[in-house]
Each structure stands twice: as C-alpha cells, then as structure tokens.
Amino acid sequence: MASSRRRTLLKVIVLGDSGVGKTSLMNQYVNKKFRQQYKATIGADFVTKEVLIEDRLVTLQIWDTAGQERFQSLGVAFYRGADCCMLVYDVNAKRSFNALNTWHDEFLTQASPSDPKHFPFILLGNKIDIDAGNRRAIPEKKAKEWCVSKGNIPYFETSAKDDYNVDSAFLCIAKLALEHEHDQDIYFKTVAQPAPDTEHTSGCAC
Fold first, then answer.
1. HEC assignment per residue over 32-56
2. pLDDT in tens, the chain (206 residues)
3. Which of these, 186, 91, 104, 107, lies nearest to 151 by C-alpha position?
4. Which residue in 47, 131, 57 sits closest to 86, CA to CA?
C-alpha cells in the first residue's frame, strides 16, 4: 500500500569543475532534456526527483555547485546534511580529472561526515559522446584506478546529451546512500541501547 511506504529525503551533492556537465546531467535525469548551449549556473540551485527504491519513496534533492566552482570553497551550508556525493569530470579534459582529488577532499573537509572512509561517493566520466570518443584524454582504466584508490567507489561513463547511463548512475548513488543510512541507523541504535538493570551477563560478547 502506498500509504504505508516510508518516505526518505536524500541530499545529493554534485561536484566537479565548471563545464563538465553537472547541470546537464541533472537536467537530463530530472526533466529528460538537454540544452546544447552552455550556461553557467548562478546562485544556489537544486532540483528534486522522486523515485521508488525497493518499495520506499525516495526524494532526491540534487544540489549543483551553482557556478561557484571557480571559488573552490562553496560554504558549509551547501554541504551540510549531504547523504552522498557525485563527483563529475569530463573524459576529454585532463584538468577536470586532475581536480577530482581537490573536490573529494574539499567535500570531506566541509561536510565533515561521521564516517568519511565509508561515505557514499560515485564518480562520473561525462561527455563520452564527443567526437565518438576520439578526443578522449582520460582512459577508463585510469578513472577506475582512481576509484580504487578512494575506497573502490563506483564509476560510470555518461553522456548527458545521449542520456547514456544517467539514470543508472543516480540510482546507484541513491541506493548507496540508503545502505549507508541503514548502517548508521544500526550503529546509533546499538550505541543508544540502555543498559539492563539486572546484573546477569551471558557468555556472548556480541
């Protein structure tokens, strides 16, 4: 029954250099539209999309860096309460790939997640449609090696223009965030368990 479904709000942060296609990916995912001309996002910007994941209604609140990438520091309010982070680079632009470490570290510094080692990240190599891949500067192998170095985070090659792998990538990060939320719930419930009044102890140490 729809009325008994749990509703969850997930805050998704999308990070990466200016021009890698963050807004286009969001627009394709939420509105199934692609704009050919590039227009920098100005001001705080987020879009929402509701999806059904394993009988749970999940509202994804997807935050764009709002054209402020050039300032590098986007402010704590932008990162606060993030449930997951999507890192994006342009497979045809080496500079955008080289900046990934900075974005990854910037997020962990600003968001200060309780469990940084296991926080849900995902990497997207966007614009694979350009020139049939002939202008590509970063091989898939190199991107996957970077993901392994960051704790084996998932990697998707995408095209906002062709709507390739866009839905799959957002669904993946949403599921990762839900799993992480579940793990956190279990952790906090375990920690918050009141001590029993009785002195009786069992042999089990678990």
1. CCCCCCCCCCCCCEEEEEEEEECCE
2. 444 556 789 999 999 998 999 989 999 999 887 766 545 444 557 889 999 998 889 999 999 875 555 555 566 778 889 999 999 999 999 999 999 999 999 899 989 998 999 999 999 999 999 998 889 999 999 999 999 999 999 999 999 999 999 999 999 999 999 998 766 554 444 444 444 444 443 344 44
3. 104
4. 47
- Selection from 55, 65, 61, 74 nearest residue 9 by Cα: 61
E strands, the chain, are 7-15, 45-53, 56-64, 84-90, 121-126, 155-157
Say which residue the tokens 């991107």 belong to: 143
Tell whether domain 2-192 is in CATH 3.40.50.300: yes
Whole-angstrom distance, CA of residue 25 vs CA of residue 14: 10
Q: Domain-by-domain residue ranges, the chain? A: 2-192
- 76-to-65, 100, 102, 144 alpha-carbon distances in Å: 12, 19, 16, 29
